[in-house]
Amino acid sequence: MKLSVVLSLLLLPTLAHADALTGQDAYYDLTLSKVRTHDVTGATGAMRFSVVDGCTGWATTQHMTLLIRNADGSLNKTVTDYITWESKDSKTLTFTLEERDNDGKLTIDDAGTATHTGPDGTGTITYTTPAGRLLNLPPGTLFPMAHTDALLAAGTDGKKFISVPLFDGTSDDGAQSTFVAVLGHHGPQKADFPALEKLASTDVDIAFYDRGNQDENPNFRSQMRYYDDGVATGIILDFGDFVMRGELEKLTIPPDECK
Protein backbone atom coordinates (compact mmCIF):
# COMPACT_ATOMS: atom_id res chain seq x y z
CA MET A 1 0.00 0.00 0.00
CA LYS A 2 2.74 1.97 0.71
CA LEU A 3 11.72 5.52 -5.04
CA SER A 4 13.94 3.00 -4.65
CA VAL A 5 16.81 4.90 -3.01
CA VAL A 6 20.41 3.87 -2.39
CA LEU A 7 21.11 5.38 1.03
CA SER A 8 24.26 5.79 3.02
CA LEU A 9 23.64 5.15 6.70
CA LEU A 10 25.35 8.49 7.31
CA LEU A 11 22.08 10.16 6.31
CA LEU A 12 20.34 8.67 9.32
CA PRO A 13 19.93 11.03 12.27
CA THR A 14 20.96 9.95 15.73
CA LEU A 15 18.03 8.16 17.32
CA ALA A 16 17.63 10.61 20.18
CA HIS A 17 13.92 10.41 20.96
CA ALA A 18 13.50 6.80 22.00
CA ASP A 19 13.25 7.78 25.67
CA ALA A 20 10.63 10.43 24.82
CA LEU A 21 8.23 8.05 23.08
CA THR A 22 5.33 7.00 25.26
CA GLY A 23 2.31 4.78 25.29
CA GLN A 24 -0.89 6.28 23.88
CA ASP A 25 -4.49 5.57 23.05
CA ALA A 26 -5.63 7.84 20.21
CA TYR A 27 -8.96 8.05 18.36
CA TYR A 28 -9.20 9.71 14.95
CA ASP A 29 -12.23 10.75 12.92
CA LEU A 30 -11.58 10.22 9.18
CA THR A 31 -13.25 12.48 6.61
CA LEU A 32 -12.91 12.85 2.85
CA SER A 33 -10.55 15.70 1.95
CA LYS A 34 -10.06 15.36 -1.83
CA VAL A 35 -11.24 13.20 -4.75
CA ARG A 36 -9.12 12.80 -7.90
CA THR A 37 -11.39 10.49 -9.93
CA HIS A 38 -15.10 10.10 -10.55
CA ASP A 39 -15.09 6.61 -9.06
CA VAL A 40 -15.33 7.79 -5.46
CA THR A 41 -18.07 10.19 -4.40
CA GLY A 42 -17.76 9.98 -0.63
CA ALA A 43 -15.82 8.42 2.21
CA THR A 44 -15.82 8.39 5.97
CA GLY A 45 -14.18 6.34 8.67
CA ALA A 46 -12.53 6.06 12.06
CA MET A 47 -9.22 4.85 13.41
CA ARG A 48 -7.98 3.88 16.85
CA PHE A 49 -4.22 3.68 17.38
CA SER A 50 -2.84 2.35 20.66
CA VAL A 51 0.72 1.92 21.90
CA VAL A 52 1.65 0.09 25.09
CA ASP A 53 5.15 0.52 26.50
CA GLY A 54 6.16 -2.99 27.50
CA CYS A 55 9.51 -1.75 28.84
CA THR A 56 11.50 -4.11 26.59
CA GLY A 57 9.34 -3.39 23.54
CA TRP A 58 6.37 -1.56 22.06
CA ALA A 59 3.01 -3.24 21.52
CA THR A 60 0.86 -1.40 18.96
CA THR A 61 -2.66 -1.99 17.69
CA GLN A 62 -4.49 -0.13 14.96
CA HIS A 63 -8.15 -0.64 14.11
CA MET A 64 -9.48 1.26 11.09
CA THR A 65 -12.90 1.25 9.49
CA LEU A 66 -13.33 2.92 6.10
CA LEU A 67 -16.63 3.33 4.25
CA ILE A 68 -16.36 4.43 0.60
CA ARG A 69 -19.31 5.47 -1.58
CA ASN A 70 -18.85 4.69 -5.28
CA ALA A 71 -20.18 6.59 -8.29
CA ASP A 72 -23.02 4.06 -8.71
CA GLY A 73 -24.14 4.65 -5.14
CA SER A 74 -22.80 1.38 -3.75
CA LEU A 75 -20.79 1.29 -0.55
CA ASN A 76 -17.52 -0.53 0.12
CA LYS A 77 -16.58 -1.14 3.74
CA THR A 78 -13.14 -2.28 4.83
CA VAL A 79 -12.12 -3.09 8.39
CA THR A 80 -8.40 -3.39 9.07
CA ASP A 81 -6.71 -4.71 12.20
CA TYR A 82 -2.95 -4.33 12.54
CA ILE A 83 -0.97 -5.57 15.56
CA THR A 84 2.78 -5.43 16.19
CA TRP A 85 5.39 -6.01 18.86
CA GLU A 86 8.70 -4.18 18.29
CA SER A 87 11.62 -4.76 20.62
CA LYS A 88 13.33 -1.61 21.88
CA ASP A 89 16.71 -2.91 20.74
CA SER A 90 15.22 -2.73 17.20
CA LYS A 91 16.11 -6.36 16.51
CA THR A 92 12.66 -7.95 16.27
CA LEU A 93 9.21 -7.10 14.93
CA THR A 94 6.24 -9.45 15.07
CA PHE A 95 3.20 -8.42 13.02
CA THR A 96 -0.34 -9.39 12.16
CA LEU A 97 -2.42 -7.69 9.47
CA GLU A 98 -6.05 -8.59 8.71
CA GLU A 99 -8.49 -6.80 6.41
CA ARG A 100 -12.14 -7.69 5.88
CA ASP A 101 -14.63 -6.58 3.21
CA ASN A 102 -18.36 -5.70 3.21
CA ASP A 103 -19.32 -9.27 4.01
CA GLY A 104 -16.73 -9.75 6.72
CA LYS A 105 -14.65 -11.91 4.37
CA LEU A 106 -10.94 -11.94 5.10
CA THR A 107 -9.18 -10.32 2.11
CA ILE A 108 -5.74 -9.81 3.68
CA ASP A 109 -4.24 -12.20 6.23
CA ASP A 110 -0.52 -11.74 6.91
CA ALA A 111 1.53 -12.55 9.99
CA GLY A 112 5.13 -13.24 10.87
CA THR A 113 8.36 -12.09 12.46
CA ALA A 114 11.12 -9.88 11.09
CA THR A 115 14.57 -10.07 12.65
CA HIS A 116 17.69 -7.98 12.20
CA THR A 117 20.61 -10.38 12.00
CA GLY A 118 23.35 -8.14 10.55
CA PRO A 119 25.05 -5.03 11.95
CA ASP A 120 24.04 -3.11 8.81
CA GLY A 121 20.33 -3.58 9.43
CA THR A 122 19.93 -6.60 7.17
CA GLY A 123 17.83 -9.51 8.24
CA THR A 124 14.97 -11.83 7.39
CA ILE A 125 11.18 -11.84 7.43
CA THR A 126 9.61 -15.19 8.24
CA TYR A 127 5.87 -15.42 7.58
CA THR A 128 3.61 -17.73 9.51
CA THR A 129 0.70 -16.60 7.30
CA PRO A 130 1.16 -17.43 4.49
CA ALA A 131 3.24 -20.21 5.97
CA GLY A 132 6.79 -20.75 4.71
CA ARG A 133 7.24 -17.39 3.02
CA LEU A 134 10.73 -15.92 3.57
CA LEU A 135 11.98 -12.46 2.52
CA ASN A 136 15.17 -10.48 3.18
CA LEU A 137 15.50 -7.11 4.88
CA PRO A 138 17.79 -4.71 2.96
CA PRO A 139 20.58 -2.80 4.74
CA GLY A 140 19.40 0.04 6.97
CA THR A 141 15.83 -1.22 7.36
CA LEU A 142 13.94 0.32 10.27
CA PHE A 143 10.85 -0.99 12.03
CA PRO A 144 7.89 1.37 12.68
CA MET A 145 8.74 2.83 16.10
CA ALA A 146 12.41 3.25 15.14
CA HIS A 147 11.26 4.94 11.92
CA THR A 148 9.15 7.39 13.94
CA ASP A 149 12.12 8.01 16.22
CA ALA A 150 14.33 8.70 13.18
CA LEU A 151 12.02 11.29 11.65
CA LEU A 152 11.62 13.06 15.01
CA ALA A 153 15.40 13.19 15.38
CA ALA A 154 15.64 14.57 11.83
CA GLY A 155 13.32 17.42 12.81
CA THR A 156 15.35 18.21 15.93
CA ASP A 157 18.63 18.04 13.99
CA GLY A 158 17.34 20.49 11.35
CA LYS A 159 17.48 17.96 8.52
CA LYS A 160 15.29 18.52 5.48
CA PHE A 161 14.73 14.85 4.72
CA ILE A 162 15.67 11.28 5.45
CA SER A 163 15.26 8.32 3.13
CA VAL A 164 15.34 4.86 4.67
CA PRO A 165 13.84 1.41 4.11
CA LEU A 166 10.91 0.57 6.37
CA PHE A 167 9.38 -2.76 7.18
CA ASP A 168 6.09 -2.67 9.06
CA GLY A 169 4.32 -5.78 7.77
CA THR A 170 1.80 -3.93 5.58
CA SER A 171 3.40 -4.64 2.18
CA ASP A 172 3.43 -7.95 0.28
CA ASP A 173 6.90 -7.08 -1.03
CA GLY A 174 8.62 -6.78 2.33
CA ALA A 175 10.52 -3.60 3.15
CA GLN A 176 9.46 -0.44 1.38
CA SER A 177 11.52 2.62 0.49
CA THR A 178 10.43 5.77 2.27
CA PHE A 179 11.22 9.41 1.63
CA VAL A 180 10.44 11.62 4.62
CA ALA A 181 10.37 15.37 3.93
CA VAL A 182 10.62 17.48 7.09
CA LEU A 183 8.19 20.36 6.57
CA GLY A 184 8.83 22.16 9.86
CA HIS A 185 9.91 21.83 13.46
CA HIS A 186 8.18 23.57 16.36
CA GLY A 187 8.90 24.18 20.00
CA PRO A 188 6.21 23.70 22.63
CA GLN A 189 3.02 25.58 21.80
CA LYS A 190 -0.68 25.58 22.56
CA ALA A 191 -2.37 22.34 21.53
CA ASP A 192 -5.84 20.85 21.65
CA PHE A 193 -4.64 18.31 24.22
CA PRO A 194 -2.80 19.43 27.39
CA ALA A 195 -0.50 16.40 27.26
CA LEU A 196 1.03 17.78 24.04
CA GLU A 197 1.53 21.45 24.99
CA LYS A 198 5.00 21.05 26.55
CA LEU A 199 6.37 18.99 23.67
CA ALA A 200 8.25 19.91 20.50
CA SER A 201 6.77 18.61 17.24
CA THR A 202 7.78 17.94 13.64
CA ASP A 203 5.68 18.22 10.48
CA VAL A 204 6.46 15.51 7.94
CA ASP A 205 5.41 14.23 4.53
CA ILE A 206 6.12 10.52 4.08
CA ALA A 207 6.09 8.84 0.66
CA PHE A 208 6.13 5.04 0.40
CA TYR A 209 7.57 3.24 -2.64
CA ASP A 210 8.09 -0.36 -3.68
CA ARG A 211 11.81 -1.11 -3.59
CA GLY A 212 13.23 -1.40 -7.10
CA ASN A 213 10.25 0.38 -8.63
CA GLN A 214 11.43 3.20 -10.90
CA ASP A 215 8.03 4.87 -10.89
CA GLU A 216 8.37 8.33 -9.35
CA ASN A 217 4.81 8.19 -8.02
CA PRO A 218 4.55 6.73 -4.52
CA ASN A 219 2.14 3.93 -3.68
CA PHE A 220 0.93 5.89 -0.69
CA ARG A 221 1.62 9.22 1.04
CA SER A 222 0.85 10.56 4.45
CA GLN A 223 1.35 13.84 6.25
CA MET A 224 1.08 14.63 9.94
CA ARG A 225 2.51 16.54 12.86
CA TYR A 226 4.41 14.18 15.15
CA TYR A 227 4.94 15.24 18.74
CA ASP A 228 8.09 14.07 20.50
CA ASP A 229 6.12 11.45 22.43
CA GLY A 230 5.04 9.83 19.14
CA VAL A 231 1.47 11.17 19.04
CA ALA A 232 0.35 12.26 15.56
CA THR A 233 -2.16 15.02 14.75
CA GLY A 234 -3.51 16.53 11.52
CA ILE A 235 -3.11 13.27 9.62
CA ILE A 236 -3.49 13.24 5.82
CA LEU A 237 -3.83 9.82 4.14
CA ASP A 238 -3.36 9.95 0.36
CA PHE A 239 -4.64 6.76 -1.29
CA GLY A 240 -4.20 8.11 -4.85
CA ASP A 241 -7.80 8.26 -6.04
CA PHE A 242 -8.88 10.03 -2.87
CA VAL A 243 -7.44 11.68 0.23
CA MET A 244 -8.67 11.32 3.82
CA ARG A 245 -8.01 13.63 6.76
CA GLY A 246 -7.72 12.28 10.29
CA GLU A 247 -8.55 14.56 13.21
CA LEU A 248 -7.50 13.50 16.70
CA GLU A 249 -10.70 13.36 18.75
CA LYS A 250 -9.59 11.59 21.95
CA LEU A 251 -6.18 11.02 23.48
CA THR A 252 -5.03 9.20 26.59
CA ILE A 253 -1.39 9.01 27.68
CA PRO A 254 -1.05 6.24 30.28
CA PRO A 255 1.31 6.49 33.26
CA ASP A 256 4.88 5.48 32.45
CA GLU A 257 5.59 2.28 34.35
CA CYS A 258 9.01 1.67 32.81
CA LYS A 259 11.13 4.66 33.87
List the helices and strands and how they pair.
Blueprint: E1 24-35, E2 40-53, E3 57-70, E4 75-87, E5 92-100, E6 106-116, E7 123-129, E8 134-137, H1 144-156, E9 161-166, E10 176-186, E11 201-210, E12 220-227, E13 232-238, E14 242-252
What can be said about this structure in brief?
This protein is mostly beta strands and 259 residues long. 5% of the residues lie in helices and 53% in strands.
Structure description:
By secondary structure, the protein is mostly beta strands. It has one domain. It is 5% helix and 53% strand. It is built from 1 helix and 14 strands. A 14-stranded antiparallel beta sheet has the order 8-7-6-5-4-3-2-1-14-13-12-11-10-9. The longest helix is centred in the middle third of the chain and has 13 residues, at 144-156. It is globular. The two termini are 36 Å apart. Mean pLDDT is 89; it is low at 1-17.
Give the tags.
mainly beta; 1 helix; 259 residues; disordered N terminus; 14-stranded antiparallel β-sheet
Q: How many DSSP-defined strands?
A: 14
Q: What would the average pLDDT be, to the nearest integer?
A: 89
Radius of gyration: 18 Å
- The tally of domains stands at 1
Order of helices and strands: EEEEEEEEHEEEEEE
